[in-house]
């Protein structure tokens, strides 16, 4: 059985509306500070930090300390892993549907 731990960790981290909002915000900006990402999330700054840590632990986000400021950016490699996993499932279903179509059309 293939190891899907990376994909599972990524999807688990993305399975929260606040964390998805953080990813959406970063998808339009190359980097943001923790303060910028925490604004208007309807959670405390400490709560926002916990969500950020979950995303960092799943390698979805990258933190870079610059002086006293911490910049946050998306780890595009991890998002590609998640996208490739879904694309693989999509290809498997397309193949199954094509096989079913040939079977049904061939049995007429």
Short description:
With 108 residues, this protein is an alpha+beta fold. Helices cover 66% and strands 13% of the residues. It has helices spanning 5-14, 17-28, 34-38, 45-57, 76-106, and strands at residues 32-33, 61-66, 69-74.
Key descriptive features of the protein:
alpha+beta, 5 helices, three-stranded antiparallel beta sheet, 108 residues
Q: What spatial form do the alpha-carbon principal axes imply?
A: elongated
Fraction of residues in H or I helices: 55-70%
Q: What gap, in angstroms, lies between the N and C termini?
A: 38 Å
Strand content: 5-15%
Strand arrangement in the largest pleated sheet: 1-3-2
Averaged pLDDT: 91
Radius of gyration equals: 19 Å
DSSP summary: helix tally: 5
Structural class assignment: alpha+beta
**What order do the helices and strands follow?**
HHEHHEEH
The stretches of 5 or more residues where confidence is low (pLDDT under 50) are none
Largest β-sheet summary: 3 strands, antiparallel
* Total number of beta strands: 3
Report on the structure:
With 108 residues, this protein is an alpha+beta fold. 66% of the residues lie in helices and 13% in strands. The protein has helices at 5-14, 17-28, 34-38, 45-57, 76-106; strands at residues 32-33, 61-66, 69-74. The chain has a three-stranded antiparallel sheet. Helix 1 (5-14) packs across helix 5. The longest helix is centred in the last third of the chain and has 31 residues, at 76-106.
What's the arrangement of secondary structure elements?
Layout: H1 5-14, H2 17-28, E1 32-33, H3 34-38, H4 45-57, E2 61-66, E3 69-74, H5 76-106
Antiparallel strand pairs: 1-3, 2-3
Helix pairs in contact: 1-5
